[in-house]
Amino acid sequence: MLDDIRRRRTRRIQIGSVPIGDGAPIAVQSMTNTDTRRIDATVDQIRALAEAGCEIVRLAVPDAEAARALREIRSQIGLPLIADIHFDHRLAIASLDAGADGLRINPGNIGGKPALTRVIHAARERRVPIRIGVNAGSLQKDILEAYGHPTPEAMVASALEHIRFFEAEGFTDIKVSLKSSRVLDTIRAYERFSEAVDYPLHLGVTEAGTLISGTVKSAIGIGYLLAEGIGDTFRVSLSRDPVEEVKVAYEILRALELRHRGPEIISCPTCGRCEIDLFRLVEEVERALSGMTASLKIAIMGCVVNGPGEAREADVGIAGGRGQGILFRKGEVVRKVPEADLARVLLDEVQKLTSQ
Q1: DSSP assignment, residue 107?
Q2: Which CATH architecture has domain 264-354?
Q3: Is residue 296 a contact partner of residue 354, using CB atoms and an 8 Å limit?
């Protein structure tokens, strides 16, 4: 962890086997985009997410059939599962009965306070945490009337109102999210909320967008908050295969030196000085290492300006030029390699390091 990132202290909750808050590692989440009622497809996607490093998975539970499917999915999956519920409190209770490790609800749309009370009591009996999910697009009517727009202050007021209700019911096993599609509103809402209470926070920029725009928004919003020490778990929201969400999440954590998983590939953007087919080389190495979990720094550089320096600082590196490259290992020159053999030789060196 960077010396200047001092994580905000929060309460500890437990989502299945994964601790959240109170200094626990920042947990990476994603959400399935399969129809939960299609059990086999959902199980396959969760397994792919787990292989990518996802630690908590959320599933949509839109009806009773999906709640029943959750029971069978739970029996096949070891990863903690969170049921995402809207509009019908009975689905939350059915999901708890099916073995959900957590609930995500928006208390403002669950069916009124009597319904919310029943969900709280059912979760308390089963010792299952609830995420209070505040979203700029679905704030309570009285909050919107008071603030005029879904401002950061409005989101914080909404969250605090919900928390007071939960606490009055004797339930504090909660985490909170305050999401907006506007990055700056998201940041400000989390900053203000984190000053008021010590509940663990689930970070995210909602409806972030496509692979490129969603990655940028999430990296700025989530990354900024994590750099401030705010956040205990998060999801990168992308209009994409959710496995890509997990990959982006770990890159955000790696960039902040908060967690490391898998290889870090450093490569130059190329310019007119590049004299090898760098794009092909990087893509080939990245594909070959896609399932690797060991943390290594790999440099693949295409010219003699910054290439040797970057390659020397990596665990394994190549500085290419004029149809060949110099192979570095732990800062030392190993040998010159023809361009056609660069990928193979580099991967062989990675294999040697990871098998030691």
Answers
A1: G
A2: 2-Layer Sandwich (3.30)
A3: yes
Taking the C-alpha atoms of residue 135 and residue 288, their distance in angstroms, rounded to an integer, is 39
Rounded Cα–Cα distance for residues 20 and 294 (Å) = 24
CA distance 155 to 49: 30
CA dihedral 138, 100, 197, 166 (to 10 degrees): 70
Helix/strand/coil percentages in the chain, nearest 5: 45, 20, 35
Q: Distance (Å, rounded) from C-alpha 54 to C-alpha 74?
A: 16
**Nearest CA among 223, 110, 117, 235 for reference residue 169:** 117
DSSP 37: T
**Spatial separation of the C-alpha atoms in residues 86 and 105, rounded to whole Å:** 6
Where along the chain do its domains lie?
13-255, 264-354
Residue 184, amino acid = L
Length of the chain: 356
Beta partners for 234?
A: 28, 203
Mean pLDDT per segment of 10 residues, for the chain of length 356 residues?
76 97 96 97 97 96 97 96 95 97 90 92 97 87 89 94 95 94 94 95 86 93 96 94 95 92 85 81 89 88 78 88 86 89 90 84
Position of tokens 């205990």? 232
Q: Cα 82 to chain center, whole Å?
A: 14
For domain 13-255, the CATH superfamily is: Dihydropteroate synthase-like (3.20.20.20)
Cite the beta strand spans of the chain per DSSP E.
13-15, 18-20, 27-31, 56-60, 81-85, 102-105, 130-135, 174-179, 202-203, 233-235, 264-267, 297-301, 316-321, 324-329, 332-338
Q: How far apart are CA 267 and CA 318, in angstroms?
A: 10
Structure tokens at 74: 């739970």
